[in-house]
């Protein structure tokens, strides 16, 4: 295939295709019955299970996820700790099949292939899902906001998907939106601050070792 005919797409393309092919937009709209606000509990009643999706450009991009953990060692620790709790956490990525862009999926930690339609049949209840998120965020490395202020900035291309009892998608949220709406004790900023403190402590110890090291002269 020449460069002229080569197809290009991005993570956002994959997210868009997933929404267009697997989510009924009408199912995301909750009737307000004349009220201008609706509580999170009311919407939560429509959701029976939750899944977490990380959108990637293609299969070669999956390895970039490890950078969100800071080090290979920390990613390995997360995988060892959460592997058997992560049967609701997936990668979705793109591939060209017979000239068309298709969606593929793998388990987040075990990297086992799974049809995209089938992953929507998995999921955890709200309590178990929130507990998993807390554990996951304690391993992941947060980023500072572009203006220099401290705080967790959620990864651009992940989505929390709520599935109703009919097996249809009824919620499509960022992790921050999920935390704000359903789990106020899921403190992403606190997770970020703890990680920053851990990094500062490691840096101090590293500098102390340099000072204590024997001089070559």
Description:
A hairpin with a 2-residue loop joins strand 2 (89-97) and strand 3. It contains seven helices and five strands. With 217 residues, the chain is α+β, with helices and mostly antiparallel strands. Residues 30-44 and 143-155 have low confidence and may be disordered. It has a five-stranded mixed β-sheet with strand order 3-2-1-4-5. The chain has one domain (11-212). It is 36% helix and 17% strand.
How many separate helices? 7
* Alpha-carbon distance between the two ends: 60 Å
Number of domains: 1
Oligomer: single chain
List keywords for this structure.
217 residues, alpha+beta, 5-stranded mixed β-sheet
Detail the topology: elements first, then pairings.
Elements: H1 11-22, H2 40-44, E1 49-56, H3 72-82, E2 89-97, E3 100-107, H4 116-119, H5 126-139, E4 158-163, E5 169-173, H6 175-182, H7 188-212
Parallel strand pairs: 1-2
Antiparallel strand pairs: 1-4, 2-3, 4-5
Helix pairs in contact: 3-5, 5-7
Write a concise synopsis of the structure shown:
The chain is α+β, with helices and mostly antiparallel strands and 217 residues long. The chain has one domain. 36% of the residues lie in helices and 17% in strands.
